Amino acid sequence: MAVNPPLVTLLGATGFVGSAVLRELARRPLRIRAVSRRPAPVPPDARAEIEVHTADLTAPGAVAEAVAGADVVIHTVLYSAGATTWRVEKGDTAAERVNVGLLRDLVETLRERRAAEGGTPVRVLWAGAASQAGPQDKEVLDGTETDRPRGEYDRQKLAAERLLLAADAEGVLRGAAIRLPTVFGYAPESTARDKGVVTLMTRRALAGEPITMWHDGTVRRDLLYIEDVARAFAAAVDHADALAGRRWLLGTGRGEPLGAVFTTIAALVAEHTGKSAVPVVSVPPPAHAEPGDFHSFAVDSSAFRTATGWRPQTPLDEALRRTVAFCAEGREESLL
């Protein structure tokens, strides 16, 4: 008798990270429920059986319906109110409802399911942020540091992570938090807009505008290409039990000076346009800048690599080249 493949429910399937995870998992013989506010595009080469489920997950009962029967839940939903994907004002209840409330709803749903049905706990993989640690005295984060978040977004993400790991300790679910560094870029098959700083500066350069920095360019960030993030979540699905109960950091292990990154972007854009490279200039930081904006860090992801066998595969220059090409060809304009 044939056995159904596992059902993976992907929350946030049209988001920047979620859409890339969907493309990666669609190559596998799985059942996938792609959950989002608007219909998720099904990859044309999908091997997986994909159910497109549209829902406002903040509505009563929506999370329970979305994860019904799931063996694995991947939670990539991110509150986004405008041009940036992560800044949140203190007291923003809409952001808290998404960033924390949806995880709380998921925990309560799975607690009720566990009490009613027993059986194997659902595996939950949740997308967090390396910035949850807050500014640290060291420049290489490895997951052993004490979290000291300064911004509201990071405080909300940390609150959600603690809910997840507490539920794992209680036996409600088997949960792992995967903290992401600065994720960026486009692949040829991308279907969701990148609102991060790397692609923002690519747009500026293509418009002939200077690339601006709030510092002297020596601030370093660990930049991880979106396709490598998707492969990491696929690896996490394969090793969900080994990862459960902990937070895990993703990154390349290198802190890239943003001034040099932006200069590379300017040069790549000049290749596409045939015009002179736009200047990269320092400007005064805006009032909403946070301490973390001026703090350099890289991420030591050796623990996750050892547990899963994952490695980032795309060199930075190649990832930047793909991103510039995608934007220069006008393909970004149709993305939401």
UniProtKB/TrEMBL annotation:
SUPFAM superfamilies xref list: NAD(P)-binding Rossmann-fold domains
InterPro entries registered for this protein in UniProt: Epimerase_deHydtase, Lipid_A_modif_metabolic_enz, NAD(P)-bd_dom_sf
CDD domains found in the cross-reference section: SDR_e (cd08946)
Domain spans labelled NAD-dependent epimerase/dehydratase: 9-251
Short name of one Pfam family: Epimerase
Domain of life per record: Bacteria
PANTHER family to which the protein is assigned, alphabetical: BIFUNCTIONAL POLYMYXIN RESISTANCE PROTEIN ARNA
Identification of the protein by name: NAD-dependent epimerase/dehydratase domain-containing protein
Native species: Streptomyces thermogriseus
